[in-house]
Amino acid sequence: MSNTVLTLIRHGESFANVEPIVESHTCRGLTPKGITQAEALATRIRNERWQYDVLYASTLKRAQMTAQIIAPALNLPITWEEGLHELRVGEIDGMNYHDVSLQYPTFDYAIRDVHTKVAPSGESWNEFALRCAATLNTIAQHHAGKRIAVVCHGGVIECAFLWACDLNAGVRRRVAFPARNTAFTTWHHRMSPFDQRLEWQLLCHNDHTHLALT
After folding, report:
1. Distance from C-alpha of 104 to C-alpha of 121, rounded to nearest angstrom
2. In the β-sheet with 54-57, what is the strand arrangement from edge to edge?
3. Domain ranges of the chain
4. Would you give the end-to-end CA distance of the chain in angstroms?
5. Domain 4-89+124-213: CATH architecture, name and number where available
6. What is the Cα–Cα distance from 186 to 149, expressed in whole angstroms?
7. Distance (Å, rounded) from C-alpha 193 to C-alpha 14?
8. Which terminus of the chain has fewer Cβ atoms in its 10 Å neighbourhood, N or C?
9. Which parts of the chain fold into alpha helices (H)?
10. pTM of model > 0.90
């Protein structure tokens, strides 16, 4: 019996969320509002006395800052994991979206053709989904039966649906699973109540009630 709980937390508002700039490794981190959002989540964690065994986080700055704010509330060290990065954008990292659309037309096309790279040296949505699936699967297997918290990105949370539901990346042409900044999504890997089959059960998605206080 697995009985694993996996909670995926999106980072707080970043500069890339409010400015027309593509940011991956050039990430400038959280805005003041994003810091406030992460602090509100940390307060909720303390008030609700969340109990987790491990805390993972993406190494991109916006996720790093969020994880560092909530880690004391969880009373856990952070395990940094590059496999949790947002979609890797290659040559367009740090560019204005307007310039990207003019110079790299495949960027706007990549969500419709999930095998098309967003830019040279970047990933396609299919490659991104496969990376996220491999990373999440490794984390879940390594900590089977534990409660796992993961600070990551909106794209990773969307790819987690593909992984847990055994869907291919082409689903993203017509279906989205959006999450607000610092919202969390929780999955429970447990025995089906009807047979002996292990299944991933979605407990909640896009829970951001703590943001009402910000």
Report:
1. 12
2. 78-80, 54-57, 147-152, 4-10, 184-191, 198-207
3. 4-89+124-213
4. 40
5. 3-Layer(aba) Sandwich (3.40)
6. 9
7. 41
8. N
9. 15-18, 32-48, 61-74, 97-103, 106-109, 125-142, 154-165
10. yes
